[in-house]
Amino acid sequence: MPIITGEDYKKRIDSLKSEVWFAGNQIESKISAHPAFRGVIKSQAELYDLQNDPGLKKEMVFVSETTGSEIGLSYLIPKSKEDLAKRREMIQHWARHSGGLMGRSPDYMNTVLTSFAASLSVLEEEENCYPERLLKIYEDAREKDLSFTHTFVNPQNNRSKLSFLEQDITNARIVDRNEEGLIIHGAKLLATQGGITDEILVFSSPGVQDSAHSYGFSIPSNTKGVKFICRESFAQAGSVYDYPLSSRFEEMDSIVIFDRVLVPWDRVFLHDNIRAATNLYANGKFIPFTLHQIASRQIIKTELLLGIAQKIVDTINISDYQHVKSKVAEIVKGLETMKALVLKSEYEAGVDSSGVVIPQKQPLYVAVNQFQELYPRFAEIIQILGASGMMTIPAEENFNTPIGSQLKHVLQGVEVDGKNRVALFRLAWDMTMSSFGSRQTLYERFFFGDPIRLSQTIYQTYDDSDSQKLVGRFLSKKADQ
Questions:
Q1: What is the pLDDT of residues 255-295, one digit of tens each?
Q2: Which of 55, 93, 212, 229 has the fewest CB atoms within 10 Å, i.e. is most exposed?
Q3: Which domains are assigned to the chain?
Q4: pTM for the full model?
């Protein structure tokens, strides 16, 4: 089956009728028409349509070596540096469509599954591990162009270092094993786009202490006993003018409850093996592949922030102020640094024994960890540049009343009338100050984990041998004198 269209995606998700709970009620109607999901499902459908755009197709797909079908490039296992560049360009095409605001656009989860498929050797000859099943799940997903969410984080009930000593009563765990498969019971966080994807990929976070918590499997989102419990929607009722971003790109986050869910054996690729669960995450291709996707998307998001900042500067004519130039330059420096780090990771990519080309992890760790610090600052810069304009944002309907002409006059900017000026500031507000914008800041602040922990990883894994040799040279010269 070739790449799907946006309409294919919507029909598949509607037909699943997954158990999704929102505002105290289970959604029974077509989920693609529900106000909390309508915008993001439409936007996601548009991404699938981009794969079919004749002008972009060469940059969005590749031909399957097994079936001859056209496959989305996010499923490509790179065998050259050129393949890495192709993956980046494809990721950024999709990211430009959403301004990088969809952290769980399909290419992210496709990349996760692809990283697992490129890491089969980690599971070979390990007890209770089935690399052939994982390969089958990957091949089936790419040939059908399936969409995925995932979950691997435990509920935030006890995060102390000794929490593993307590009897677990909430975290999703294996409670039984029978001839049909695993029985999973408990909860997991935080499935973004939960309930609006074909499947849910479930795996253990590294460092689990109990074999009942070590597993990896993928099941349809409508599997009996799987429940998605949603937070409040940030897609407000209003026009695209009033909510230019949240109306289109609000990705719902959900708690996933597994109510004695039967996972068939052919969907399980590991279970009851703590070492394998940790190694698949830590020693496979998961980290370099996903970091490459994340940083590539974040570059586009930074471009959007830069564009908004400069547009505000031009619209209210504040470019003469030194602090304004300095603030915009902060975003420029962040953007160019992110670009350089991603290109460095590709330039220094290595090849493993199976011929898979792996982007260099270290610059990608630095890029993503740096973005965790930069994004809140960039959002703050937008707020500072906009100042009172971030609050002078009457809704669109006001411009269609008898006072509309007055508003267009009193709220005008430089060579732009009041309605168009307000449109810009509503964009800036939705990006940085609305409930949607605040969620974006929190999301990027903790993307790929706690920023302090990530910085510790950088410290512990960085190869400083060249630096030490350089110091040694100067110390030895001093000793010789």
A1: 999 999 999 999 999 999 999 999 999 899 999 999 999 99
A2: 55
A3: 6-282 (2.40.110.10), 286-469 (1.20.140.10)
A4: 0.95
